Amino acid sequence: MLEGRIPGYHADRMLETVKRFRANWMRYHRPEDVNQLLRLFPAVHLPRGFMLDYLPIGGVETGWIFPFARREMITSGESAIPPSLAAIERDRLAGKRGSGELLRLEVEHLYRHLTHEPTATGLFEYAFFISELWATKSASKARDWLDLDPIFTKRQFDAVVREAKQVLRVIRPETCDPLARMAPTGGGVVEFIVYQGAAWKRIFRLRVSVEVDGSVRREPGELLANLG
Fold first, then answer.
1. What is the secondary structure of 110-163 as a DSSP string?
2. Mean pLDDT of all residues in 88-107
C-alpha cells in the first residue's frame, strides 16, 4: 500500500468547517444541506451534472437519511428519487439498516458515483465525508461518529489529557497527523486520533476502512489514553 500523512493543520481546518455545518444543518433544506456538506471536501467529487439528494427515514428525533446521487436536471413529470428506491416503502427501508441488501443500494445509488483524488488527502477526505454524510440529520443513529472528537495536533492531545479528572494511561504519539494507506486496486485505510468522552473518556486511533465498492467501515484501534 502507498501511504502518506495529511498535515494536521489541513485536517483541523476541514474539521472546523464541518463543525460549523453541524451547528447549522437544520437551517438547510433538502437537498442543499448534503450538497453544502460535499463542498467542504474539495478532494471528493460527483460527475458533472450530478448532485446529492436523500430520503428522510423516520421522524426528526429518531430518524436518519438515505443519501443518493442523481442528475441535477429532472424533466417534467420525472421523480428525483431513483425508481428502485421509490419502490421500497420507507418503513421497509428503515428495517434494512445495516443489512447487506441496504449496502447494495448504497453502492448502486451513492458510492459508485463518488470519486476522490488519488492522494492521501483524497482518501482521508472521502472517509471523513462519508462518515459525516450518514450522520447528517441522523443524530439518533450516528452517535458512534458524532460523539468522537478528532485530534489532529499534539496541542489538542495535550489539552484533552490536561483537562481530564483522572489519567490512568497515556501514550503520547509522535504525530497527530492523519495517516492514509492507499490500496493499488482502490480503497484503503485511514487512521486518525479521536477522543471519546461520555462514559468512555478515552483517546484512541480510529481506523476507517474504505472498501473497493466505496463503502466505509469504522473500528477502534490502538488505545492512547485512558482518562477515566
1. TGGG-EE-SSHHHHHHHHHHHHHHHHTT-GGG-HHHHTEEEE-SHHHHHHHHHH
2. 69
- Domains of the chain by residue range: 2-226
pTM confidence score: 0.92
Residue 219 CB neighbour total at 10 angstroms: 8
Is the distance from CB of 200 to CB of 191 less than 8 angstroms?
no
> How far is residue 136 from each of residues 45, 82, 142, 144, 154, measured CA to CA in Å?
18, 20, 9, 13, 28
Cα dist. 45→42, 64, 125, 187 in Å?
A: 7, 23, 11, 15
* pLDDT per position as a tens digit, 101-120: 788 999 999 999 999 999 99
Nearest by Cα to 178 from 97, 103, 116, 122:
122
Coil, helix or strand for 53?
Answer: strand
Of the candidates 153, 154, 70, 76, the one whose C-alpha atom is nearest the C-alpha of residue 112 is 70
29: three-class secondary structure by DSSP: coil
Confidence at 63, pLDDT banded by 50, 70, 90: confident
Cis peptide bond upstream of 31, omega within 30:
yes
